[in-house]
Amino acid sequence: MASVDNEFVLMVAELLGPLGVIRSRRMFGGFGLYCDGMFFAIIYDDVLYLKGDAETKDRFDAMGMSPFAVPSGRPMTLSYFEVPGDWLDDEDQLLEFAHMALGAAHRAQAAKNKSKKAKRKKTPDGETP
Questions:
Q1: What's the confidence (pLDDT) of residue 33?
Q2: What residues have CB less than 8 Å from 55, skipping those under 6 apart?
Q3: Helix runs in the chain, H state only
Q4: Confidence at 4, pLDDT banded by 50, 70, 90
Q5: Are 16 and 94 contacting, i.e. CB atoms less than 8 angstroms apart?
């Protein structure tokens, strides 16, 4: 369940509950949503945004999901995409796309972990210094 007292956040956390344990954290004037510890969604100004990547791009584009624009005054977007409001009444569609977002979050974490491993230098005998 969400850890804040925002009605919209609590409602979205309940809707996304079938994915796993949903938690929220306040961040940049909105909320970050985590499923089993994996950051996969943003709620800002009572709008839900789901994490996307190259694998989800075509599906998200086809649904007209626009990217989250950071509210900093500078033109900058993140790889999180706006969920149409009517999806909150269509649990199957919401969960389908939320599941894709969770996959994108896992792929991003795996790539980050792989990058960290590649940065470690190895000695000629294969041992880490």
A1: 97
A2: 100, 103, 104, 107
A3: 7-15, 57-62, 91-119
A4: low
A5: yes
* Type of residue found at 116: K
Sign of the Cα torsion 62, 35, 68, 105 reads negative
Q: What are residue 120's phi and psi, to 5 degrees? A: -70, 130
For residue 96, the number of C-alpha atoms closer than 13 Å in the C-beta half-sphere is: 8
Distance (Å, whole) CA 84 – CA 57: 16
Length of the chain: 129
60-91, pLDDT tens digit by residue? Answer: 999 999 998 877 767 667 899 999 999 999 99
Q: Which two tokens stand for residue 126?
A: 């294969």
Is the pLDDT reported for residue 38 higher than 70? Answer: yes
